[in-house]
Amino acid sequence: MGIDRLDGKLLELLADEPRIGVLEASRRLGVARGTVQARLERLQSQGVIRGFGPDVDPAAIGYPVTAFATLEIKQGQGPDVRAHLGSVPEVLELHTTTGHGDMLCRLVARSNADLQRVIDRVVGFAGIVRASTAIVMENPVPLRIVPLVRQAAGSADAPDVPGPPSRHGTP
Amino acid sequence: MGIDRLDGKLLELLADEPRIGVLEASRRLGVARGTVQARLERLQSQGVIRGFGPDVDPAAIGYPVTAFATLEIKQGQGPDVRAHLGSVPEVLELHTTTGHGDMLCRLVARSNADLQRVIDRVVGFAGIVRASTAIVMENPVPLRIVPLVRQAAGSADAPDVPGPPSRHGTP
DNA sequence: GGTCTATCTGTACAAGGTGCCCAGAAACTT
DNA sequence: AAGTTTCTGGGCACCTTGTACAGATAGACC
Predict the structure, then answer these.
(1) Which of A141, A146, B87, B147 has the fewest C-beta atoms under 10 angstroms from its C-beta?
(2) Do B148 and A55 touch (CB under 8 A)?
(3) A170 nearest nucleotide via C1' and CA
(4) SS3 at position A166
């Protein structure tokens, strides 16, 4: 388990230019195409890369308002609340947590006024005792993974890039 | 602005099977290849599709613990705090918000013990007055966009799919 | 030191996809 | 009714992918 430096560079490269193919990636990394192909397959089968889904901006499809809601729920209502929230399209993500609340969810809405409607729909459910909402104003650090990948690849089992560009079948 | 039904279906298709190409997508959607190509370009230039970055699972690279931290910061320290948090790889995302706290960030760590180290690093900064952390236990609804896309495409300006499979150059 | 195993390299080939172009038809707007 | 936008279907040159193989290399083991 874990990723080495080549894996890290490959992930960085894909994060920077997701549309490049295996061949182009191998050229950039200075390794053989087969190597990149094998690494990619391994990363996907290990679950490191979950997929290459399109990164859709909610703001661009009419939902410019984002908010986080902390929910407190009635004992034993967990499963019901989850199902309820799962059925609301504006709930982009839901976590159960320790701490003051019991759940934390990310919401989007068409406007501040519309956010009221979304919140009403979210909390308008028997199992939910209380909710407190924080509206997002700015997003100084958008969801990112590269710095973490770099840290993960640079430490631990990172036996360095496979082969320091040595040449093989050379006379 | 906005997306129509074909855009919606295209986004759904890409979310389901991100590795399919333009040609295959056009076959699935029953439209011409050029149409899919044009739609994709438009969606990207409009910012609806930000990219196709690899979806990396932090847990799979050694960071199985996720937490959300609400931060309260000293007046006027905003920019400094942002820069500080931006330099911490374990900070995956940062928002400034209304409400009780001033900022909300998503953290990951190698373990619960390691989370303490991360939090110390995050809050060990002059501008931060107080922090409260919620550790994520479960993630019943992982970050998703399809339901929202479906809603956005199904309403408003959705003049229906371009052409009800009519045939053209047919005798 | 010698051997084994896992991995990488370089190469080849067939199959198929991509980017780009075009003229004509269809649908929506004015 | 005319004009504009968009979709269709076709073609072409070029490139990438998937797959396979033998030989080279590095690290682990005996």
Answers:
(1) B87
(2) no
(3) D24
(4) coil
Tell me which residue has tokens 């406007």: A111
Residue-by-residue pLDDT tens, chain B, 171 positions: 688 888 999 999 999 888 898 999 999 999 999 999 999 999 998 899 998 989 999 999 999 999 999 999 998 888 999 999 999 999 999 999 998 889 999 999 999 999 999 999 999 888 899 999 999 999 999 999 999 999 998 754 333 343 333 333 322
Confirm if B50 and A56 have CB atoms less than 8 A apart: yes
Q: Would you tell me how many other CB atoms lie within 10 Å of the CB of residue A111?
A: 12
CB of B171 nearer than 7 A to strand C: no
Q: Which of B25, B124, B128 is nearest to A54 (CA)?
A: B25
- In this structure, what is the dihedral angle of CA atoms A87, A88, A93, A94, given to the nearest 10 degrees? -70
Q: Which strand C bases fall within 7 angstroms of a protein CB?
A: 7-11, 16-22, 24-28
Strand D nucleotides below 7 A of a protein CB?
A: 6-10, 15-21, 23-27
Q: How far is CA A43 from CA A16, B10, B89, B160, in A?
A: 17, 26, 21, 39
Give me the mean pLDDT over the A92-99 stretch. Answer: 95
> Which residue reads 């609400």 in tokens?
B70
Rg (CA), chain B: 22
Selected for mutation to probe chain A from B49, B98, B145 (highest A CB count within 10 Å) is: B145
pTM over 0.70: yes
| Helix, strand, coil percent content, chain B, rounded in steps of 5 | 40, 25, 35
Q: How many angstroms separate the CA of A51 from the C1' of C13?
A: 30
Structure tokens at B169: 């150059």
